[in-house]
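thought: user wants a sequence for this fold. calling inverse folding tool.
action: design(structure=
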Protein backbone atom coordinates (compact mmCIF):
# COMPACT_ATOMS: atom_id res chain seq x y z
CA UNK A 1 0.00 0.00 0.00
CA UNK A 2 0.86 3.68 -0.22
CA UNK A 3 0.77 5.48 3.13
CA UNK A 4 0.30 9.25 3.37
CA UNK A 5 0.97 11.55 6.33
CA UNK A 6 1.30 15.25 7.02
CA UNK A 7 0.16 17.54 9.82
CA UNK A 8 -1.06 19.96 7.12
CA UNK A 9 -4.41 18.78 5.75
CA UNK A 10 -4.05 20.73 2.49
CA UNK A 11 -0.76 19.00 1.87
CA UNK A 12 -2.40 15.63 2.61
CA UNK A 13 -4.99 16.37 -0.08
CA UNK A 14 -2.16 16.95 -2.57
CA UNK A 15 -0.27 13.82 -1.51
CA UNK A 16 -3.41 11.70 -1.82
CA UNK A 17 -3.76 12.71 -5.47
CA UNK A 18 -0.31 11.38 -6.34
CA UNK A 19 -0.75 8.38 -4.02
CA UNK A 20 -3.80 7.33 -6.05
CA UNK A 21 -1.77 7.38 -9.26
CA UNK A 22 1.05 5.33 -7.76
CA UNK A 23 -1.31 2.90 -6.05
CA UNK A 24 -3.08 2.14 -9.35
CA UNK A 25 0.22 1.23 -10.97
CA UNK A 26 1.12 -0.96 -7.99
CA UNK A 27 -2.41 -2.40 -7.79
CA UNK A 28 -2.55 -1.43 -4.14
CA UNK A 29 -4.62 0.78 -1.83
CA UNK A 30 -4.00 4.16 -0.22
CA UNK A 31 -3.79 4.65 3.55
CA UNK A 32 -3.90 8.08 5.22
CA UNK A 33 -2.80 8.57 8.82
CA UNK A 34 -3.99 11.12 11.37
CA UNK A 35 -2.09 11.36 14.65
CA UNK A 36 -3.73 12.64 17.85
CA UNK A 37 -6.74 14.12 16.08
CA UNK A 38 -10.42 13.46 16.78
CA UNK A 39 -11.68 15.18 13.62
CA UNK A 40 -14.00 12.56 12.12
CA UNK A 41 -15.05 14.96 9.34
CA UNK A 42 -11.42 15.32 8.27
CA UNK A 43 -10.99 11.54 8.20
CA UNK A 44 -14.05 11.30 6.00
CA UNK A 45 -12.70 14.04 3.73
CA UNK A 46 -9.43 12.14 3.32
CA UNK A 47 -11.51 9.27 1.94
CA UNK A 48 -13.38 11.62 -0.38
CA UNK A 49 -10.01 12.91 -1.60
CA UNK A 50 -8.58 9.50 -2.43
CA UNK A 51 -7.78 7.45 0.69
CA UNK A 52 -9.13 3.89 0.89
CA UNK A 53 -8.72 3.84 4.64
CA UNK A 54 -7.70 6.24 7.38
CA UNK A 55 -5.86 5.32 10.55
CA UNK A 56 -6.73 7.64 13.43
CA UNK A 57 -3.78 7.08 15.75
CA UNK A 58 -3.73 8.04 19.43
CA UNK A 59 -0.34 8.45 21.12
CA UNK A 60 -1.35 10.58 24.10
CA UNK A 61 1.08 13.35 23.11
CA UNK A 62 0.03 17.00 23.35
CA UNK A 63 2.09 18.17 20.39
CA UNK A 64 4.30 16.96 17.56
CA UNK A 65 7.52 15.23 18.61
CA UNK A 66 9.63 13.63 15.92
CA UNK A 67 10.88 10.56 17.76
CA UNK A 68 7.48 9.49 19.07
CA UNK A 69 5.61 10.23 15.85
CA UNK A 70 8.14 8.15 13.91
CA UNK A 71 7.47 5.30 16.33
CA UNK A 72 3.72 5.68 15.78
CA UNK A 73 4.03 5.56 11.99
CA UNK A 74 6.35 2.56 12.21
CA UNK A 75 3.71 0.67 14.21
CA UNK A 76 1.05 1.55 11.61
CA UNK A 77 3.36 0.29 8.87
CA UNK A 78 3.80 -2.98 10.76
CA UNK A 79 0.02 -3.43 10.52
CA UNK A 80 -0.46 -2.28 6.94
CA UNK A 81 2.73 -3.49 5.27
CA UNK A 82 2.84 -0.38 3.08
CA UNK A 83 5.56 -0.32 0.47
CA UNK A 84 5.98 3.43 0.12
CA UNK A 85 5.35 6.33 2.50
CA UNK A 86 4.57 9.88 1.34
CA UNK A 87 5.36 12.55 3.95
CA UNK A 88 4.59 16.22 3.46
CA UNK A 89 7.84 18.15 3.20
CA UNK A 90 7.19 20.91 5.72
CA UNK A 91 9.17 21.65 8.90
CA UNK A 92 7.82 18.71 10.92
CA UNK A 93 7.59 16.39 7.94
CA UNK A 94 11.26 16.69 7.04
CA UNK A 95 12.31 15.67 10.55
CA UNK A 96 9.73 12.90 10.74
CA UNK A 97 10.64 11.35 7.37
CA UNK A 98 14.33 11.12 8.22
CA UNK A 99 13.65 9.55 11.62
CA UNK A 100 11.12 7.10 10.18
CA UNK A 101 13.48 5.99 7.41
CA UNK A 102 16.24 5.40 9.97
CA UNK A 103 13.92 3.30 12.14
CA UNK A 104 12.82 1.26 9.13
CA UNK A 105 16.35 1.00 7.72
CA UNK A 106 14.75 2.29 4.53
CA UNK A 107 15.71 4.65 1.74
CA UNK A 108 14.50 8.25 1.91
CA UNK A 109 14.24 10.66 -1.04
CA UNK A 110 13.45 14.27 -0.20
CA UNK A 111 11.58 17.12 -1.90
CA UNK A 112 10.39 15.16 -4.92
CA UNK A 113 8.39 16.81 -7.70
CA UNK A 114 7.43 13.54 -9.36
CA UNK A 115 6.80 9.97 -8.22
CA UNK A 116 5.86 7.12 -10.53
CA UNK A 117 6.24 3.38 -11.05
CA UNK A 118 8.72 2.10 -13.62
CA UNK A 119 9.53 -1.56 -14.12
CA UNK A 120 7.46 -2.31 -11.05
CA UNK A 121 9.56 -0.06 -8.79
CA UNK A 122 8.75 3.30 -7.23
CA UNK A 123 10.82 5.98 -8.96
CA UNK A 124 11.27 9.60 -7.93
CA UNK A 125 12.50 12.82 -9.48
CA UNK A 126 13.85 15.82 -7.60
CA UNK A 127 15.78 18.98 -8.33
CA UNK A 128 19.48 19.08 -7.43
CA UNK A 129 22.26 21.66 -7.78
CA UNK A 130 19.85 24.57 -7.10
CA UNK A 131 17.54 23.44 -9.86
CA UNK A 132 20.19 22.96 -12.53
CA UNK A 133 19.69 19.20 -12.78
CA UNK A 134 17.14 16.47 -12.04
CA UNK A 135 18.06 13.40 -9.99
CA UNK A 136 16.10 10.25 -10.87
CA UNK A 137 16.17 7.77 -7.99
CA UNK A 138 14.55 4.36 -7.66
CA UNK A 139 13.72 2.25 -4.61
CA UNK A 140 15.08 -1.29 -4.85
CA UNK A 141 13.64 -2.36 -1.49
CA UNK A 142 10.55 -1.76 0.63
CA UNK A 143 9.43 0.31 2.35
CA UNK A 144 10.61 3.60 0.89
CA UNK A 145 10.06 7.08 2.32
CA UNK A 146 9.38 10.04 0.03
CA UNK A 147 8.91 13.67 1.04
CA UNK A 148 6.91 15.97 -1.22
CA UNK A 149 6.62 19.77 -0.85
CA UNK A 150 3.37 21.68 -1.09
CA UNK A 151 2.02 22.96 -4.41
CA UNK A 152 3.60 20.14 -6.42
CA UNK A 153 0.41 18.17 -7.13
CA UNK A 154 -3.15 19.38 -7.47
CA UNK A 155 -5.59 17.76 -5.04
CA UNK A 156 -8.41 15.62 -6.35
CA UNK A 157 -11.90 17.09 -6.11
CA UNK A 158 -14.13 15.78 -3.35
CA UNK A 159 -15.97 12.62 -4.31
CA UNK A 160 -18.72 12.14 -1.75
CA UNK A 161 -19.63 8.79 -3.29
CA UNK A 162 -16.30 7.22 -2.28
CA UNK A 163 -16.37 4.78 0.62
CA UNK A 164 -13.54 3.77 2.88
CA UNK A 165 -12.63 2.52 6.31
CA UNK A 166 -11.75 4.63 9.36
CA UNK A 167 -9.66 2.66 11.87
CA UNK A 168 -9.00 3.98 15.35
CA UNK A 169 -5.76 2.75 16.84
CA UNK A 170 -4.16 3.39 20.24
CA UNK A 171 -0.40 3.24 19.97
CA UNK A 172 2.00 3.02 22.88
CA UNK A 173 5.14 4.81 21.75
CA UNK A 174 8.53 4.83 23.41
CA UNK A 175 9.04 8.05 25.35
CA UNK A 176 12.39 9.61 24.50
CA UNK A 177 14.46 11.75 26.89
CA UNK A 178 14.33 14.86 24.70
CA UNK A 179 11.73 17.41 25.74
CA UNK A 180 9.99 20.35 24.12
CA UNK A 181 10.34 23.05 26.75
CA UNK A 182 8.63 25.86 24.87
CA UNK A 183 6.83 26.58 21.61
CA UNK A 184 6.70 30.12 20.28
CA UNK A 185 4.51 30.93 17.33
CA UNK A 186 6.38 32.68 14.53
CA UNK A 187 5.22 36.25 14.12
CA UNK A 188 3.92 36.69 10.60
CA UNK A 189 2.00 39.37 8.83
CA UNK A 190 -1.18 39.03 6.83
CA UNK A 191 0.73 37.97 3.71
CA UNK A 192 0.27 34.43 2.40
CA UNK A 193 2.07 34.19 -0.91
CA UNK A 194 1.68 30.40 -1.08
CA UNK A 195 -2.09 30.65 -1.54
CA UNK A 196 -2.11 33.75 -3.76
CA UNK A 197 -3.46 33.45 -7.31
CA UNK A 198 -1.69 36.62 -8.46
CA UNK A 199 1.76 37.70 -7.25
CA UNK A 200 3.75 40.78 -8.23
CA UNK A 201 7.36 40.42 -7.05
CA UNK A 202 10.18 42.93 -6.75
CA UNK A 203 13.95 42.48 -6.88
CA UNK A 204 17.21 44.38 -6.80
CA UNK A 205 16.11 46.56 -9.71
CA UNK A 206 14.42 48.84 -7.18
CA UNK A 207 16.60 51.71 -5.99
CA UNK A 208 15.01 52.36 -2.60
CA UNK A 209 12.46 50.88 -0.21
CA UNK A 210 9.83 53.51 -0.89
CA UNK A 211 9.71 52.52 -4.56
CA UNK A 212 8.18 49.14 -3.67
CA UNK A 213 4.85 50.96 -3.52
CA UNK A 214 4.87 50.72 -7.34
CA UNK A 215 4.67 46.93 -7.06
CA UNK A 216 2.11 47.09 -4.25
CA UNK A 217 -0.14 49.34 -6.34
CA UNK A 218 -0.09 46.92 -9.28
CA UNK A 219 -0.72 43.96 -6.96
CA UNK A 220 -3.68 45.77 -5.41
CA UNK A 221 -5.22 46.55 -8.80
CA UNK A 222 -4.82 42.88 -9.81
CA UNK A 223 -6.25 41.79 -6.43
CA UNK A 224 -2.99 39.99 -5.79
CA UNK A 225 -0.14 39.81 -3.30
CA UNK A 226 3.32 41.37 -3.20
CA UNK A 227 6.32 39.04 -3.27
CA UNK A 228 10.06 39.56 -3.50
CA UNK A 229 13.39 37.92 -4.20
CA UNK A 230 15.94 37.02 -1.54
CA UNK A 231 17.92 40.30 -1.46
CA UNK A 232 14.82 42.37 -0.71
CA UNK A 233 13.82 40.28 2.32
CA UNK A 234 17.08 38.77 3.61
CA UNK A 235 19.69 41.42 2.80
CA UNK A 236 17.96 44.79 2.55
CA UNK A 237 15.01 43.78 4.77
CA UNK A 238 12.67 46.07 2.84
CA UNK A 239 9.96 43.42 3.12
CA UNK A 240 9.39 40.67 5.67
CA UNK A 241 10.30 37.05 4.92
CA UNK A 242 6.58 36.34 4.42
CA UNK A 243 7.07 37.84 0.96
CA UNK A 244 10.27 35.95 0.09
CA UNK A 245 9.91 33.60 -2.88
CA UNK A 246 12.68 31.21 -3.83
CA UNK A 247 14.66 28.13 -2.93
CA UNK A 248 15.10 29.24 0.70
CA UNK A 249 11.83 31.16 0.86
CA UNK A 250 8.32 30.21 -0.22
CA UNK A 251 7.39 27.98 -3.15
CA UNK A 252 4.42 29.40 -5.01
CA UNK A 253 2.09 28.31 -7.82
CA UNK A 254 -0.08 31.30 -8.77
CA UNK A 255 -2.11 31.73 -11.93
CA UNK A 256 -0.11 34.89 -12.70
CA UNK A 257 3.40 35.78 -11.54
CA UNK A 258 4.90 39.17 -12.45
CA UNK A 259 8.64 39.52 -11.76
CA UNK A 260 9.76 43.15 -11.67
CA UNK A 261 13.44 44.06 -11.52
CA UNK A 262 14.37 40.44 -10.75
CA UNK A 263 17.43 39.04 -12.52
CA UNK A 264 16.22 35.45 -12.54
CA UNK A 265 18.85 33.52 -10.60
CA UNK A 266 18.05 29.84 -10.26
CA UNK A 267 17.39 30.18 -6.51
CA UNK A 268 14.43 32.45 -7.25
CA UNK A 269 13.22 30.46 -10.24
CA UNK A 270 13.04 27.34 -8.05
CA UNK A 271 10.34 29.03 -5.98
CA UNK A 272 8.06 30.18 -8.82
CA UNK A 273 8.75 27.84 -11.73
CA UNK A 274 5.31 26.21 -11.44
CA UNK A 275 3.38 29.47 -12.00
CA UNK A 276 0.77 29.20 -14.76
CA UNK A 277 1.80 32.45 -16.48
CA UNK A 278 5.01 34.39 -15.84
CA UNK A 279 5.54 38.01 -16.90
CA UNK A 280 9.02 39.55 -16.56
CA UNK A 281 9.84 43.25 -16.50
CA UNK A 282 13.54 44.13 -16.69
CA UNK A 283 15.66 46.77 -18.42
CA UNK A 284 18.33 44.17 -19.26
CA UNK A 285 17.28 42.22 -22.37
CA UNK A 286 19.81 39.50 -21.41
CA UNK A 287 18.37 38.98 -17.91
CA UNK A 288 17.92 35.29 -17.06
CA UNK A 289 14.34 35.88 -15.92
CA UNK A 290 13.22 36.15 -19.54
CA UNK A 291 14.16 32.50 -20.12
CA UNK A 292 11.53 31.50 -17.55
CA UNK A 293 8.88 33.99 -18.68
CA UNK A 294 5.87 33.55 -20.96
CA UNK A 295 5.81 37.29 -21.64
CA UNK A 296 8.58 39.85 -21.26
CA UNK A 297 8.78 43.63 -21.17
CA UNK A 298 12.23 45.14 -21.69
CA UNK A 299 12.16 48.57 -20.10
CA UNK A 300 12.77 50.74 -17.06
CA UNK A 301 10.47 49.52 -14.30
CA UNK A 302 9.99 53.10 -13.13
CA UNK A 303 8.40 53.88 -16.49
CA UNK A 304 6.69 50.55 -17.15
CA UNK A 305 4.95 49.94 -13.81
CA UNK A 306 2.91 53.18 -13.62
CA UNK A 307 1.74 52.72 -17.23
CA UNK A 308 0.93 49.04 -16.66
CA UNK A 309 -0.99 49.81 -13.47
CA UNK A 310 -3.02 52.53 -15.20
CA UNK A 311 -3.74 50.24 -18.16
CA UNK A 312 -4.98 47.48 -15.83
CA UNK A 313 -7.15 49.98 -13.95
CA UNK A 314 -8.81 50.98 -17.22
CA UNK A 315 -9.43 47.35 -18.15
CA UNK A 316 -10.86 46.57 -14.73
CA UNK A 317 -13.45 49.36 -14.90
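)
observation: tool returned 317 residues.
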Amino acid sequence: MVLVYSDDKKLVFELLAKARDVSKDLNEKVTAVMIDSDDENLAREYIMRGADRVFVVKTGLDTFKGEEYADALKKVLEDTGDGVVFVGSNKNGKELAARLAAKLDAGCVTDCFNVYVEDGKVTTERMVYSGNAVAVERFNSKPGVVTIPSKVFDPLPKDESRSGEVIKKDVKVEMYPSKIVDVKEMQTGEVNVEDAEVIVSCGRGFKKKEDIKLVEELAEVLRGTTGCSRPIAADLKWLSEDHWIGLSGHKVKPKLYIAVGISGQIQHIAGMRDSDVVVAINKDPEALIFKSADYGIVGDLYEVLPKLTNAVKEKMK
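thought: summarizing for user.
answer: Here is the designed sequence. The helical segments are 9-26, 40-48, 66-80, 91-104, 213-221, 230-235, 266-272, 301-316.
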